[in-house]
Amino acid sequence: MDSLQFGRRFGQLVGFVFAAHGDHPTKPSKAVRKWDGQTPYAVHPLWCATMLLAEPALPEDLRVRGSEALLLHDVLEDTAEELPAGTPEEVAGLVQDMTFASSDAEMVEVWSKSDEVKLLKLYDKVSNLLDGSWMSAEKRQKYAAYTLRLADYVEPVYGQLNITRIARTICE
């Protein structure tokens, strides 16, 4: 896929994600971010996806595939929507593997998933911590420990990345 095709597809997915979270959340609170109750929820997957796209140390195919999966990663959990038609099988598989019954289940089950899923979950958790002012001290500590564990796992596999640096800065 050339950059123009990717740009068009990415733009379409951004529109889909904003509509899915804004118009079809499983409950009204899922339409906005918890920290202010106003920011559209879709800002979170968009942040995750663009941060991955901007990571020069990762191969382009992983950044493209991963950015699409990150855009869509909360659609199945938090909206009444299915993945859009034409979602590549490998992207749909990543989204499925990033979908868990609860955050506690995720923290156990993620370790049986692929290295790529662990990398993508690191982007997800860093974003959650960056706007996690709503978290109790206990929840934030638990999230931070999990995020550091993901960073510790990801770094030997993918090398030092911007996301691992950010994770260490906000968690330590």
TrEMBL record:
Q: What is the superkingdom listed in this entry's lineage?
A: Bacteria
- SUPFAM superfamilies, per database record: HD-domain/PDEase-like (SSF109604)
What's the name of the protein? HD domain-containing protein
> What organism is recorded for this protein?
Candidatus Vogelbacteria bacterium CG10_big_fil_rev_8_21_14_0_10_45_14
Q: From which lineage does this chain's organism come?
A: Bacteria, Candidatus Vogeliibacteriota
